[in-house]
Amino acid sequence: MRVCVVGAGVIGLSCAIRAAEAGHSVHIVSAQPAAQSVSAVAAALWFPYRASPQERVLAWSMTSLRVFRALADDPESGVALRYGTELHRREKPDLWWAEQLTDLTLLGGGELSGVIAPNPEVLGGLRARLPILVMSRYLGWLEQRCADLGVAVSAATLDSLTGVDPTADAVVLAIGLGAGDMLGDSEVTPIRGQVVRLGNPGLTDWLLDEDDPTQFCYVIPRFDDVVCGGTAEVGQSSLEPDMATEAAILARARRLVPDLADAPIVSRAVGLRPGRREVRLERCDDLDRTGRLVVACYGHGGAGVTMSWGCADEVVGLLAG
Ligand SMILES: Cc1cc2nc3c(=O)[nH]c(=O)nc-3n(C[C@H](O)[C@H](O)[C@H](O)COP(=O)(O)OP(=O)(O)OC[C@H]3O[C@@H](n4cnc5c(N)ncnc54)[C@H](O)[C@@H]3O)c2cc1C
Q1: Which residue ranges of the chain lie beneath pLDDT 70?
Q2: Which atom in ligand 1 lies closest to the alpha carbon of residue 300?
């Protein structure tokens, strides 16, 4: 089939790759290139955060985990496997996301020295080795893979499905937050995320503290820098970094990881996660008046990178009918 993928974020590129690998002739149309997408702002740790429904999210995420583990052998991909700790502030943390992971260690509060500065509010943690992706490199790797597979890319903002190349037999809508405008999907909501990146003083392990939303904090060392976050402001769409928010992010990160005290700010960014009550991944041919096969794949919230390969596989399955 001739497949038009609308959107060139992590979801669109992954879908395009899997569709081309399945033998389809694929063309991507996107308003913005990957480097300017929300995907480029992702931290990006493999972690199923702020996405539903849980069962599908977990299945998609586990598929991606297997792919990322293999990609970590290729330094060009920007994927690395790193140990790190999710901190727990509750007696009974919700570990739904980790139920299928092997190789985990549950830590008691007394076993966190060397992980964080002493903090009586933190009751324990979960240590695991998970993928971290340097998105600038990873998106470039995905684009190159598309090029190698003969996927054509063009720039255009589509107002509706009428604008899709009429010769396409099938359309994949990987438009993230754009589904609000293009499809009139009122369930799509921005979830604003702000990050600040510091020079890396030599950290290798990631840290996640999201048990208490008022303390929401992550520290993700990449190669040269450390991504510190974050915020999850539902319905907010300002793309301007807020300096008071940045100061609060840095204060939380430095309280947990004092080694960051003197690390210089290298860059800052804001991205709008495509929030939705549930990820929309389904056939929706009724959106198109010309009878083409249409698959929607958007609304991945805070875990689009994490779910990308699992979603791409399912999209290609739907293309097969
Ligand atoms: C601060 C921050 C940290 C994050 N950290 C993580 C993390 O650690 N792990 C993780 O898994 N996820 C993380 N995320 C979430 C992740 O970035 C998103 O879930 C993911 O990028 C969504 O990918 P997407 O391809 O659906 O959307 P996008 O990257 O937004 O791509 C959508 C594409 O569609 C195009 N488009 C939209 N409308 C139209 C139109 N009408 N016509 C043509 N093209 C259109 C856009 O130009 C764009 O190319 C984070 C997000 C933020 C903001």
Answers
A1: 213
A2: 19
Between the CA of 127 and the centroid of ligand 1 the distance, in Å, is 27
* DSSP H helix total and E strand total for the chain: 6, 15
What confidence score (pLDDT) does residue 216 get? 85
- Each residue's pLDDT tens digit, 286-303: 999 888 999 999 999 999
Number of domains in the chain: 2
Cβ of 84 closer than 6 Å to ligand 1, yes or no, is no
Q: Of 162, 153, 202, which Cα lies nearest the Cα of 35?
A: 153
User: Is 155 in the same domain as 50?
Assistant: yes
Residues 211 and 229 in one domain: yes
Distance CA 306, CA 171 (A): 23
Residue 164 and residue 299 in one domain: yes
303 lines ligand 1 (CB under 6 A): yes
Using most ligand atoms within 8 A of CB, pick from 18, 30, 63, 86 the residue to mutate for ligand 1: 30
pLDDT the model gives residue 321: 77
State in Å: Cα 38 to ligand 1 middle.
4
Q: What is the CATH number of the domain that holds 237?
A: 3.30.9.10
User: Which CATH number do you get for residue 25?
Assistant: 3.40.50.720
Rounded distance between C-alpha atoms, residue 77 and residue 80, angstroms? 9
**Would you give the end-to-end CA distance of the chain in angstroms?**
12
Closest-CA residue, ligand 1 atom 33, reads 7
pTM score of the predicted model: 0.97
Q: Are residues 321 and 195 in the same domain?
A: no
Let me know whether 90 and 2 are in one domain. no
